[in-house]
Amino acid sequence: MHDMLAHATQHHAPPTSFIRKYVFSLDHKVIGKQYYALALVAALSGMVLSWMMRLHLGWTNLAIPGLHFLSKNGAPGNVMTPEFYLQLMTMHGTIMVFFVLTTAPFAAFGNFFLPIQVGAEDMPFPRFNMMSFWVTFLAFVVLMSSFFVGDGPTLGGWTQYAPLNAVGSAAGPGQGLGVVLWATSIALFCIGQLLGALNFITTTLDLRVKGMSLMRLPLSAWGWFITSCIGLTAFAVLLPACILVILDHVAGTSFFVASGLVINDQLLPHSGGSTLLWQHLFWFFGHPEVYVAIVPGIGMVSHILITNMRKPMLSQRVLIYCMGALAVLSYVVYGHHMFVSGMNPYSSLAFSFPTLVITIPATIVVLIWTFSLYGSRLRINSASLFALGFISMFVSGGVSGFFLAQPSIDIMLHATYFVVGHFHMVMGVAAMFGIFAGTYFWFPKMTGRMMNETLGRVHFWLSFVGTYCIFMPFHYLGMAGNVRRYSSFPEDFLQPLLPVHRLITIAALVTGAAQLIFVYNLIHSRFRGKPAPDNPWEATSLEWSTATPPPWDNFGGRLPVVYHDPYQYGVQSSVGDYVMQASPEQVKTEFEEK
Amino acid sequence: MAKFFAMTIIVIAIASAVPVVMHTWEAPADISTHGHLIDKQMSETMIEAGVSFLAAQIILAMFIWQFSNRRPDAKIKTFPGGAKGLVIAALVLVGAEVLALGVFGVKAWADVYLTAPSADALPVQVQAGQFAFYFRYPGPDGKFGPLHPELINEATQNLFGLDPEHDPDSRDDIVTAEMAVPVNKEIHLLMHAKDVGHSFFVRELRVQQDFVPGLDVSLHFTATRVGRYEIVCTQLCGLGHYNMKAYLDVLSDHDFNDWLKKEAAMQ
């Protein structure tokens, strides 16, 4: 198997035409950049949608200039209707979870760096890899097209609960064609990610270069590998679930619609379906998806922190085991999303305990990170600031998981802003900080140019303080009983909380604007940045052993040989306080793992 | 820069804790017999999570303060005890926390969901549909008539799809747009969805439960304080979701009987 795969990858010819080089490329590095560009466009789209939502939540009757271009019916006089708010919210969640938080940390960075970090010339199935990106791109186009057809996108939220997702347009705007487009988009997305996961797993298992044992893989590579294992099973469940939803719309089936339901005084023709079946299928994917978003970040942040600490983590092995434990446990905790769903209440207890237990590996990861800082020579730069910010956010978002893991407390917090604050911090902001850390760290290798450090730091400060100002108050709102997914707070018990919403809106606008600094830095540095040396951070892993940017076959036709564990820092070698994995130089280290 | 970052982390951590300690925003007072168990569980979890949050952020900040931007020849050290000590600490401390929360949390959950309502609990049916709640009381016979979804017709106010002509049990059923219950009387709430998923949430009652289309679910509670409280939908149900609400009136026995008589007369 190994020989066959190696043969397959080492013999795809270098691209010659523009189309094969930059569009339908087989090169994992180009595909990684394409994923990154897609994630960037998606992130900016999702952010603009969130701005509109936040403005509406703060000032319900505010006219937002240009809003009617997105939907004439949804924004008469540029004022958002309740249904258009829900449509924007659904698109925001779907875009961010699928096309940003999955695409950037896993597909973009993983594509670019996993093959190089294991010492391969490419992925074993380059055509699948190319398909993976273009199917994902198509998925994004299909999703965004729902703004412009029929009565707009679905308004059912990114979780698309049944039977609202299956009863058609009678249930509201976007619930007909909008849902079909949503489900088609996500089904395509699943296919793209399954193809990607297949490549990632085989790359890691079969294409490691000589000397690269599994335990010599950098933690970032472990993160992508474990994530691909999660993705292979999680997306394989969501894909058929989306197909079943489409069938409920177009083929008259009733997978998710029960008998005897009445809309507009009309008895629906469906019978025999189960509304809870969708929730089980969705969350069997949905909770592992949280780890698809965050485990690559855990790996990348570990990798970046070690480089900047100039010493290895207290235990590489424990971090790998913990990432594995998070992945395995993610499949048996999904029911905590369903405590008050009507599921058997004894099941709630069964899902509660593993949900509480998953805090143990997460705590160990945080402790290893934090106490590895002890005695280090921590270099502060944009990448390490975002990596450290990741830890802070991961802790802040993680501790609120203690509450939501308990069914009794969930009675009060379910479907409130507490949940929104929790998942935005732990899988949204933390994952975004991982993406930013990865960008500042690997940009030189990806483009051959350095990013502007001053702009990077300004971006960090505004993002770090700003995201706390946005998402910490979400928890307070939830504790007061502020229900999520409300387009406005008319004269009811939520009215006294309106000032908090307005403050959050202002913080969101400022923090969002700060992301434009990042975009400017990214584009400006790509063309005008200082030329980057091959190893600007004095790092050890294989991506820093090759040219900047790497040649099409990664190592210029000479595969490296690995002699060391990935993180030989704090040593005395001929090049400084580190020795690269591909260097045969033998050095004495005080940091052997026991 | 590093020291300022460390200070920022500590300031944010403390500032985040202040509104919690000061009870700036919190749920309204409990008006149920089971709610104190949920509140107690919430307080205990807040203490444990709060201590973990503050400790983790402060230690992170301390190490950033102490070990950033050191001289290139500064000696690199390893944390005494290494990873093994940390793993054991996490297993013991978080494990104990997990066990404590898991075990004690069961009690509060069980009080709502794992015990049967008493035999003399007052049955009330609530039906959720886009975008209103309707309530049904069984009348003097104590029995609800069966539902016929095909008969639902808002124009004729047959909101539940009752057929009093053929179903004797339906004839004395009382259908209302607001919910009233007698104080200190156990209520057995029977939940029925007309169209899509909805939820029944009363903050003061410490009750939240989804409606499941095609599957009637029930729960029971006892309200202990007379007053008017909002019932809101928390399960996204369509464009009018934000406006789907009703009121729960907790009344004295006397007022409740008067209210029920008045509603019965209006049927």
Structure description:
- The complex is a heterodimer of chains A (594) and B (267).
- With 594 residues, chain A is an all-alpha fold.
- Chain A is 60% helix and 1% strand.
- Chain A contains 17 helices and 4 strands.
- In chain A, strand 1 (262-263) and strand 2 form a beta hairpin.
- The longest helix of chain A has 37 residues, at 82-118.
- Chain B is α+β, with helices and mostly antiparallel strands.
- Helices cover 37% and strands 22% of the residues of chain B.
- Chain B is built from 4 helices and 10 strands.
- A 5-stranded mixed β-sheet of chain B has the order 3-2-1-5-8.
- In chain B, helix 1 runs antiparallel to helix 2 and helix 2 packs antiparallel against helix 3 (82-113).
- The longest helix of chain B has 33 residues, at 35-67.
- Chain B starts with a helix and ends with a helix.
- The model of chain B has no long low-confidence stretch (mean pLDDT 94).
- The interface between A and B is large, with 111 and 107 residues.
Return residue spans of chain A where pLDDT drops below 50 for at least 5 consecutive residues.
1-8
CA radius of gyration of chain A: 24 Å
Mean pLDDT rating of chain A: 94
Q: In the CATH hierarchy, what is the superfamily of the largest domain in chain A?
A: Cytochrome c oxidase-like, subunit I domain
Radius of gyration of chain B: 26 Å
- CATH class descriptor name of the largest domain in chain B: Mainly Beta
SSE topology string of chain A:
HHHHHHHEEHHHHHHHHHHEE
Q: What order do the strands of the largest sheet of chain A run in, or round the barrel if closed?
A: 1-2
**Total discrete domains of chain B:** 2
Which features does this protein show?
heterodimer; A: 594 residues; mainly alpha; Cytochrome C Oxidase, Chain A; 3 domains; two-stranded antiparallel sheet; 17 helices; 60% helix; globular; disordered N terminus; B: 267 residues; alpha+beta; Immunoglobulin-like; 2 domains; 5-stranded mixed beta sheet; 3-stranded mixed beta sheet; 10 strands; 37% helix
